[in-house]
Write a structure and sequence with these properties.
Elements (H helix, E strand, L loop, with lengths): L4 E8 L2 E8 L6 E5 L10 H7 L4 E5 L16 H14 L5 E6 L1 H12 L4 E7 L8 H17 L1 H12 L4 H4 L1 H12 L3 H12 L15 E6 L7 H10 L3 E6 L6 H4 L1 H15 L1 H4 L8 H17 L2
Parallel strand pairs: 3-4, 3-5, 5-6, 6-7, 7-8
Antiparallel strand pairs: 1-2, 2-4
Helix pairs in contact: 1-11, 2-3, 4-5, 4-8, 5-7, 11-13
This protein binds D-malate.
Amino acid sequence: MRYAGNNIKLMVDNMMINYTDAGPEEAPVIICIHGFPLNMSMWDKQVSVLIEHFRVITYDIRGHGGSDVGNEAFSIDLFVADLIGFMNVLNLDKVSLCGLSMGGYIALKAIEGFPARFEALVLCDTTCMADSPEAKEKRMKAVESIIQHGVAQYADASIKNFFPQDSFTTSPEIITSVREMIMKTSELSLCSTLLALSSRRETCTKIADIQVPVLILVGSNDVITPLSAATFMHDNITKSTLQVIDHAGHLSNMENPEEFNRHLKLFFNSVYADHLKISQGGDSSILRELRYKLNMLLSFRSI
Ligand code: MLT
């Protein structure tokens, strides 16, 4: 049985997950996975658009937003187990995933372990690479700083990396909302997740096995997971398309939702063309790719 609405609480393996479920009952399901240290509300501008045709589920990763912390040390593998457990409890056999940054790490690890459960992926501002030794060192320093000085200093440092300098004057409300999300995350969750991120394993050696359509999106000014990381994934995933989102840093979905959503809608409309009856054609991946590219051209011409 489905409960549609906001901030629904669901027990998954003795842990309460907070989620939102919106859109038509019989529609294909898209699960959006947020970045660190944010929560499901970062997808609000995508949900409002996608629910026209799709059932869209956003959830808070354990320790973030309204979900429980649980009793285990955090890891990307644990976050994947939570995702699969969540899908099982909701009786969702096969879905598409849309993950940003840490959400992308989870999506990549999930499809590596459970390829039959996924129909398509959107990988936003993310990478298949593990942390470099310097990045691990930075995470350890961040953990020490949070323990010594609390969350505020960490929140200020994070937003400086998330956003290009000019966004502080052009989009102050987005920056304020992101800072609030970080401030609401407990010190325990921040530190546990930093350790999980620094110990995550790479997924680059497995991405060539991905058989489903993949859309890769990256903000033109993303300094955390830059264009080079997106290009590497695009070069190695057969059925992938890469789009750069202008005027955006690491949180491209929040900074330029118009452009981001246009790519998202075209991608999912093409993945689920049969369901949407957009086309009567066959469903081969080449046709899907061509349909996507044609839609892109038409959408640019109509601007
Ligand atoms: C995120 O947005 O999820 C983080 O930037 C991921 C990371 O720190 O590696």
